[in-house]
Design a protein that fits this description.
Layout: E1 18-23, H1 35-53, E2 56-64, H2 69-77, H3 82-94, H4 96-99, E3 107-110, H5 114-129, E4 133-143, E5 148-150, E6 169-178, H6 184-193, E7 198-199, H7 201-212, E8 218-219, E9 221-223, E10 232-233, E11 236-241, H8 243-248, H9 250-253, H10 261-269, E12 274-278, H11 282-295, E13 303-307, E14 310-312, E15 315-316, H12 327-334, H13 336-345, E16 353-354, H14 357-386, H15 400-407, H16 411-432, H17 434-437, H18 442-463, H19 468-480
Parallel strand pairs: 1-2, 1-12, 2-3, 7-13, 12-13, 14-16
Antiparallel strand pairs: 4-5, 4-6, 6-8, 9-11, 10-11, 14-15
């Protein structure tokens, strides 16, 4: 525990035994990390930190999805052995943990891990034993980008709307199928029983409509001769598992399922397993995976939280358009907490958001350099000049409105509330002007400054799950009654554009 917390500690509510599980999706390693996944990882980190502050025993999971045709083809394009390719690129995603100041206790799973492969095969065997897997010949339209079959109604001008740069493939071969259609009624019952199963409600309505319209069995294997990079199907060396079937099992293999019964029971069976995902993962997370869990005789997820996309100038970010922003670029320009702030406050919690370098610079300067940073500098300069000893208080509760927002995964709303408090404190200083009053009534001026420092400490406490490094710096400055330098240095006027 940092030293400053001895005087101004975080909440400690460990009186009851509670467990909480949260996972991101597992990004493909066929491309460099982008800010869309960085945003998802940071959001899950905020929730994990918030739960810990409220006394939960948290299991936080992320990792990389390393099988499938896209990865196999990308390795071929680069002339690399596919195993060496995934090893190299998986490390880039693992490095995001340090880069973005993600909770160091996070678990990082790779779908090429031996224990995951065994778990996926056990999961397959249980679904097959339940009569939900059969082999048949099929012909379908397929998007390699989504790794999903597509109906004509899902295509726009014959293209996948999410991957318009890729041609739709027509495939006809013998595959294993999961009997998804058997679970239409059970899925609808699940949705009815848990009215907040998918957040936001607009995405929940979307998946309910999808299932209500009728769902079809989907392919869960590929011929090894055409796609050799995958988890072998138990008892059939001719086939490997379909990438989605394999990857979804990672959410429980990370817990040690099926061998670690105690850990699985604690966090999945008796906990509240929560999954963050992008809107292009809605069907897989909230319908396909839930039916698979039912088939394997395992409890369903507790909640699915769906993010929107980050766009640039009205277009989805893509390498071909040259409008991609990498997390490393953002951290280099804005710092770790500057990056966390920008992605948490200025990207909508659930809907698409348009981002450009110009907007990012404007938000940083207005709300961090000239906003929070300037406020901390003003308050601590007055404290250092006029207070003879540090302000101390034993406990600072995180603002209840922030807590309410985080409990609903409304992260943007929560951090907006903190910035409302920052504006209030700024106005309070302007109205009371203790720096002037000190010449006329030193006692009253000192009281005002002490009160301002307490308000600043409360703001810092509320920032803890969002911007942990900044919160710690502010609390340390309060403990030492001085600040070393600006929290958020101003940027040069020159900048690149998307």
């Amino acid at each position: 525990m940092p030293k400053h917390q001895e005087q101004i500690p975080l909440l400690s509510l460990m009186s009851e035994n509670k467990s909480f599980y949260i996972t991101t999706t597992l990004p493909y390693v066929n491309a460099e990390p982008h800010i869309g996944f960085a945003m998802e990882l940071i959001r899950a980190d905020v929730i994990a930190r918030w739960k810990k502050l409220n006394g939960f025993d948290v299991f936080f999971n992320t990792g990389t999805d390393e099988h499938g045709l896209k990865i196999y083809k990308k390795a071929e394009e680069e002339g690399m052995d596919v195993r060496k390719f995934v090893d190299k690129h998986s490390e880039k995603f693992k490095n995001l943990i340090d880069l973005l100041d993600i909770d160091k206790n996070i678990y990082f799973i790779r779908t090429t891990d031996e224990k995951h492969i065994k778990a996926a095969q056990e999961f397959w065997s249980r679904c097959k034993a339940n009569g939900d897997i059969e082999k048949k010949i099929y012909k379908t339209k397929y998007c390699v980008g989504c790794e999903l079959e597509k109906t004509d109604s899902e295509l726009v001008n014959g293209k996948c709307p999410i991957h318009p740069n890729l041609n739709i493939e027509v495939r006809e071969e013998e595959n294993y199928f999961f009997k998804f259609s058997r679970y239409q009624g059970k899925l609808l019952d699940l949705y009815k029983s848990y009215p907040e199963f998918v957040i936001p409600n607009s995405r929940f309505n979307e998946i309910k409509s999808f299932v209500e319209m009728g769902i079809k069995d989907f392919s869960i294997s590929r011929l090894k001769e055409k796609m050799p990079w995958g988890v072998p199907v138990p008892g059939d060396s001719v086939h490997v598992m379909f990438v989605w079937f394999d990857a979804l099992v990672s959410y429980i293999s990370a817990l040690g399922w099926p061998s670690d019964e105690e850990n699985f029971k604690r966090f999945w069976v008796e906990g509240t397993p929560t999954q963050y995902a992008g809107k292009d993962n809605l069907r897989q997370q909230s319908a396909m995976w839930q039916a698979m869990l039912m088939s394997a005789g395992l409890p369903n997820s507790h909640q699915i939280v769906i993010n929107g996309f980050i766009n640039s100038n009205g277009q989805k970010m893509s390498k071909s358009l040259g409008n991609v922003i990498s997390p490393a670029e953002m951290v280099k320009r804005y710092g770790v907490d500057g990056t966390r702030y920008l992605l948490l406050r200025h990207v909508n919690s659930f809907e698409d958001t348009d981002v450009t370098w110009e907007r990012l610079d404007e938000w940083y300067e207005a709300n961090l350099a000239n906003g929070l940073g300037n406020l901390v500098s003003r308050v601590m300069k007055m404290a250092e000049t006029h207070l003879t000893s540090p302000v101390s208080k034993t406990v600072f509760d995180i603002d209840k409105e922030v807590g309410k927002a985080l409990d609903k995964f409304e992260i943007q709303k929560g951090i907006n509330h903190i910035w409302h408090k920052i504006a209030e404190l700024d106005l309070y200083i302007q109205e009371t002007e203790p720096f002037k009053l000190v010449k006329e009534d030193a006692v009253r001026a000192v009281e005002l400054i002490q009160n301002q420092v307490l308000k600043l400490a409360s703001i810092a406490q509320a920032l803890t799950p969002f911007m942990p490094e900044t919160a710690e710096k502010i609390l340390k400055a309060i403990q030492e009654n001085r600040i070393a330098g600006p929290l958020f240095p101003r940027k040069d006027s020159s900048t690149s554009s998307l």
